[in-house]
Amino acid sequence: CQGGCGGCGGNEGGGESGSKAAKRTRAGTKKKHCEICLDEDGFDADEMIGMPCGHEFCETCWYGFIANALEKGPLCVRESCPQAGCKELITEEEVERAAPDLLPKFETYQLRSFVETYGMTRW
Question: Which residue, of 7, 29, 90, 119, has the greatest Cβ tally within 10 A?
C-alpha cells in the first residue's frame, strides 16, 4: 500500500508508526475513524456504515446526516455521500441501515420526486 487509501495508514506489511496507524482494540482489530465526528477512540467495523463509493461513517453521524437531509423535504433524494466532493447518491439502503425509523419518510419523498419528475411523461 502506498498510503493513499487511508485504510491501513500506509503501513500494510510493515510495522505501525505514529498517528497514521489505526488504533487497535484488545482483540487486535483495527478501529475505524469517522470523517464526520473524528472521534478519537474510533469505531468497530460493525459501528460503521459504508456506501458503494467506499466511504464509511459512524452510525450516529449517519443518523444525524439523514435526519438533516429529510428536513429538506423531497430534495433529500438528491443528497450525496457526506464525504466532501463525493457524488454517490444516498439510497434507501443507507437510510435503512442508519435510520430505519426514517425510511418510510425517505421512501415517500422518493415516490413524490419520481412523480414530480416523470408524472407528465407519456408511455
Answer: 90
Q: How many domains are there within the chain?
A: 2
Whole-angstrom CA distances from 13 to 2, 4, 9, 20 are: 11, 15, 11, 14
Instruction: List beta partners, residue 56.
Output: 50
Neighbours of 55 (CB within 10 A): 16
Residue 50: domain span: 45-118
Judgement on whether residues 25 and 51 belong to the same structural domain of the protein: no
